[in-house]
Amino acid sequence: MTTNIVRESATIYEFPVKNPQKLREMRERQRMASLYVMESGCGSWYHEDAIREADETRKQ
Question: Residue 43: how many CB atoms within 10 A of its CB?
Fold first, then answer.
């Protein structure tokens, strides 16, 4: 019986955009959304908790 289970991370594929203007708009929206998350701290608490828990587990 296998006791070592490896979970692979999801792969995100970006669909090709043929319209250059739409591509620029999409990238700008993504950039603005990431800036908002970084500035406000919203949406990252679960990531920070996961890192903290992983560090605590390694120390034990």
Answer: 12
CA–CA separation, 37 and 33 (whole Å): 6
Which pLDDT score is estimated for 37?
Answer: 66
CA dihedral (8, 15, 46, 52) positive or negative: positive
pTM for this predicted structure: 0.38
- List for the chain the helix, strand, coil content (%; round to 5): 60, 0, 40
| pLDDT score at 41 | 59
Given a contact cutoff of 8 angstroms between Cβ atoms, the answer to whether 17 and 23 are in contact is: yes
Q: Does the pLDDT at position 1 exceed 60?
A: no
Q: What angle do CA 10, 40, 58 make, to 5 degrees?
A: 50
